Amino acid sequence: MNDEVIRVNMLVEGQTEEAFVRDVVAPYLNSRSVFVNYRRVETSRRKERLTGQTIISRGGIVSYGRLRNDVLRWLKEDSTAFVTTMIDVYALPSDFPGVAEARAKVNPHEKVAALEQFFEKDIAYRKFIPYLQLHEYEALLFSDVAVTDSGLRLFDGRSRVAQLQQIRDQFATPEHIDEGATTAPSKRLKSIFPAYDKLLFGPLIAATIGLTKLREECPHLDEWVTQLESLHQSGNQQ
């Protein structure tokens, strides 16, 4: 039996995704002997004139080219680890591979599968596992609208669970909630709870819902976590 240590480096879009990985995904995978490191995607780097120190800014997707460079850099820096991503489909940069082809697909799961296939082909590393979040992080918060309502009504004590449920009932899964400029998951939440703050409440609510429920409601998320947790089993087979 091969006792190879399985490590996964996760490149995430922003602080909210970073907190979600830290508090929800990483502990689960670590308990299954898949050890997780994570960092936000690089947006810029520059050298200080006086010290020569490289200053790196992180958080947000400014272009596919910069994201691609960040993925490749981590794969080369830490070649024994897998690298995966957690990037929103919503507002993907126009230079992302396969955007035109994916846009022609009606089913969101077919769309994201196409985007991930193009992404994987472009990176072309065996240990790269692309994951794009449908359509954005806030979709996860529609996995249990009662929990989301309980967390967000702390602002004023007034429940909006019926409004949240009405939105949820329109879609087969939370991942089907669209990416319109005013109807994306985050826009819908903000219209119901104007004081909603993604970083402050997003990770806490998702953690309260729990990964089991999130996976039950969000099949694409479940596929990703299943693929990652299976790395230990496949890595320790002769």
Q: How many distinct helices? A: 10
Uncertain regions spanning at least 5 consecutive residues: none
Number of domains: 2
What is the helix fraction of residues, given as a range?
40-55%
Order of secondary-structure elements: EHEEEHEHHEEHHHHHH
Please name the CATH topology of the largest domain: Rossmann fold
Strand tally, please? 7
Span from first to last CA? 6 Å
Helix/strand class: alpha/beta
Please give the CATH architecture of the largest domain: 3-Layer(aba) Sandwich
The average pLDDT score comes to 92
Oligomer: single chain
Percent in strands:
15-25%
| Rg computed from alpha carbons, rounded to a whole number of angstroms | 18 Å
Largest sheet, if any? 5 strands, parallel
How would you portray this structure in words?
The protein is α/β, with parallel strands linked by helices. It has two domains: 7-134 and 218-235, 3-Layer(aba) Sandwich (Rossmann fold), CATH 3.40.50; 137-197, no CATH class. It is 47% helix and 15% strand. The protein contains ten helices and seven strands. The protein has helices at 15-30, 64-77, 99-103, 108-123, 145-152, 161-169, 185-192, 198-209, 211-217, 219-235, and strands at residues 6-12, 34-40, 42-47, 54-58, 82-88, 128-129, 132-133. Helix 5 packs across helix 8 and helix 9 (211-217) crosses helix 10 (219-235).
